[in-house]
Amino acid sequence: MSANLQELTEERLVVRSVIQQSGHACVMFEMGARPHPPQSLYRPYIQQCQVFVGIYFQRYGWIAPNMTLSGLEDEYRLAASLPQLIYIKEPAPGREPRLAQLLDTIQAGNAHPKTFVTLEELRQLLHTDLVQLNQQLPSTPPYQEPEPAVLSNQPPVALTSLIGRDDEIAAVKTLLLDGARLVTLVGPGGVGKTRIATEVARGLESHFADGVSFIPISTLSDPALLVQTIARTFGLLESSSRPLLESLIEYLRPKKLLLLLDGFEGVLPAASVVSELLGKAPGLQILSTSRAVLRLFGERELAVSPLQLPPSGAGFEELGQSEAVRLFVERASAVNPAFSLTPENAAAVGEICRRLDGLPLAIELAAVRIKVLQPRTLLQRLSSRLKTLTDGPRDLPERQRTLRDAIEWSYRLLSVQEQQLFTCMSVFVAGCNLEALEAVCHDESDLELLEEVSGLIEKSLVIQERQSLEPRFSMLETIREFALEKLELSGQAPRRREMHAAYYLELAEAASTGRIGPRQMDWLERLDLEQANHRAALTWLIENKKTLEALRMASSLRWFWDLRGQFSEGRRWLQDALDLPGEVPPLVRASALMGLGVLLWRQGNYTNARPLMEESLALRRTNGDPEGIAYALQNLGNLATHLGDFASARTYQDENLEIRRRLGEKSNLADALFSRGNVALVEGKLSEARKLYLESFDVYNEVGDVLGLPFVLVNLAEVARLQGDYPAAQTLGEDARHLAEQFGDRLRLANALQSLGLTARDQGQPEVAETKLQQSLHIYRELGHGLKIGFVTSELGTVMLQKGHLAAARQLFSQGLRTHQALGLNPGIAYGLLGLAETALQEGNLAEAREFLRSGFPIALQTTDHLTIARYLETLALLLLQSDPAQSARLFGAAHAMRQDNEVVVSQAEQPVLQAGLDQLSRLFDETTLEQLWQEGRASDMTARFLKLLD
């Protein structure tokens, strides 16, 4: 269904309701939770659909960057092959001209649009049309949630023209179009592999239904990071319930996609990943660039040769047709507009290209010198430098030795100060900022840093880019390799790497210290930019057995890996650091143990997480570290809450809060108050939870940690929802969503959407609830948040129960239950089993409902989740209405007492079902008897008799 989100909100809900009542699933494009261009969302959706329904009024809609049509028109055109039902709202005095043109196009087609004025008219028109259309369509499949939309990386658009390479591009295209699954472009650095590959990819984009994805991996040195890098391109993050490779395979399996892996030489040991992806995703084809073949079965290798060279003695016209000469002339004229190929300089230009063996990067480096040198002088200087490097390493390909000569020539033209900076900069991976350069490369020498950096940029040896508020400086990998060799030969490499590691250790610790407060997003952005440098620093520290520094850096980066969902990578670094020999201060070890424990917990490995956290706590206690003790208690309390051990959680969090208050340091007090409020919330102590949350909210504001506010607002909304204050819950949830969107915080946005969905559900608004919960679920899946994935899936099951879609409800409750069983999370298991019991009861399958209640109630009782326990009592009361009405009345009384004690109301959505049960009892008993049974239930412990009543 396609309609403008801003002006047709009510019409969209009406259409969705009619479509679902007709037995179909309705796919609606919602862009509220995603920052991606709309097209990347709705195209995959349209491909799944059988019917296109379009509703139009006055607005044409937003035109995304690089698009000429709005999403509204693009959706219509992409759905041209589907049966189309078109409805136009009239009157429309403010209709935009572009929409009027679109409607004229529709009128001229075969869609036969209909007009409507009121919502009821629209409902009747669509219902009538769908009844007729249903007779022509195959039966719809069972309910399935739409697959999350994906934003793939497009191949970069070149800023300069491509010269030559027609034959190579045609050859690669032919191989791929003929069905080759893996094509590898092989050649030395600087020969033009990436440029050819991106031209091929852009030219074949229309041949792949799911497009082309360009993934640069040249900066990777750890093969274990290949899967993570590919997966993140498609919005896939680590899941606590399954390996990331499995998620990636499942995502790619139905796709028809070209994957361009650029710069594979650094991760060759991971070639088996490519083989596995190709073996399990039949529509996937991979184009890779590398300095060495992958050596996989079925790989088609294409060696990329240098550009075509002019023969010796060639005349002016023949020289002008040479690809290498044409490249030189174009790049030279870019830096010196007065330069052109003439009969006087043509021979020298041709000889320069021959001496450089036609390698594009070498030619471009040489062409830059035309700014100050004539071709003949340039040739003489190049020739004199080449003579000194004819005995390069014999184990390198000849062309790579020639490229080395070209870079060597450029290097020797640098001043001594520029050479020092050039070689020092090679320790940085994927660039650095000026501060890092000053810390690592500007010591006792007389470097004028800004002047020397500018010189390297002008000579095309360093690239300046602005990825954030400050400029960053980087090198092409080929040039960086050359600079690294020079650094090794200078004897300065160990010292520079040690300085590099020291700087990034200081940066990691500063970020960890500053992460609570108003600069948290600044630190997060900085760590994103510097992740490759932190990986390099950690690698050096671990290889050189710098145990103390490795543990400090890994512990300081734990929060970053946690927020970015990079749980496995963080675990590897922390484990490797902990495995290093040597004694370290106990508090340093305690931090690393806690960091590893938290990341294990995130992935659902509670068995191994808890002993690490407990060891960390013991070290903190032994060494009298109250701040560390509180932090350990807080994490152990959070872990216990997730496991449903609320008594232990309460003990941990009470001590945590007492320490925080005693220390008087408020930056962490808000977290302690919030965590203790969570225990009160799950125990059903709503007034206590609300008081703790409000105090937490005030402290977050006081210390300027605004990123903590959305969490508190969401949980305050939960308290209001459970108490039946739906306007407050709605307002708090919207406030939380607004802040999360403002901060770009996906986790808190998912929390807010989940809360808004539950508020809508409890008010009996299943359509709105389903939309919000689906949006929330998509984000949790991107984050790999197993706990929330399970709960929201089951909560969608409750929405399906409201709508009477029992098969869908059963499917969703079963999915949520399996997720929580895999993680060993008792609260989620009890919730899922209760949902299945309620579903079986509505289906009339009383025996199955009894078994689900029998399995789930002891788990709910163990967790002391009073709301869930009350719902178990109410479900059993409904089950016993016919067979044992007296016990049913007592159970209703006991549940009412439990709700009253915990200030949890019966929601508007629950009220009709429970009231129907009470009405049935009022027909069986007189008022006095029913009141007596009700009071007996309130006064007795019906939870102790629950299982016996099921017999």
General description of the model:
With 951 residues, the protein is mainly alpha-helical. 63% of the residues lie in helices and 5% in strands. The protein has a five-stranded parallel beta sheet, with helices on both faces. Strands 1-2-3 form a three-stranded parallel beta sheet, with helices on both faces. A hairpin with a 6-residue loop joins β10 and β11. α34 runs antiparallel to α35. The radius of gyration is 33 Å and the shape is globular. It starts with 8 loop residues before the first helix and ends with a helix. Mean pLDDT is 86; it is low at 30-38, 140-152 and 384-402.
Report strand %: 5-15%
- Measured distance between first and last alpha carbons: 49 Å
Question: What is the CA-based Rg, rounded?
Answer: 33 Å
Shape: globular
Regions with little confidence, pLDDT below 50 for 5+ residues: 30-38, 140-152, 384-402
Short description:
By secondary structure, this protein is mainly α. The protein is built from 44 helices and eleven strands.
Can you lay out the helices and strands and say which pair or pack?
Layout: H1 9-21, H2 39-47, E1 52-56, H3 71-78, E2 84-89, H4 97-108, E3 114-116, H5 119-134, H6 166-177, E4 182-186, H7 193-203, E5 212-216, H8 226-233, H9 244-252, E6 257-262, H10 271-280, E7 284-290, E8 299-303, H11 316-321, H12 323-335, H13 346-355, H14 360-367, H15 375-387, H16 398-412, H17 416-424, E9 432-433, H18 434-441, H19 449-458, E10 463-465, E11 472-474, H20 477-490, H21 493-514, H22 520-529, H23 531-543, H24 547-563, H25 567-578, H26 586-602, H27 606-622, H28 626-643, H29 646-663, H30 669-682, H31 686-703, H32 709-722, H33 726-743, H34 746-762, H35 766-783, H36 786-803, H37 806-823, H38 826-843, H39 846-863, H40 866-879, H41 885-901, H42 911-924, H43 927-939, H44 942-950
Parallel strand pairs: 1-2, 2-3, 4-7, 4-8, 5-6, 6-7
Antiparallel strand pairs: 9-11, 10-11
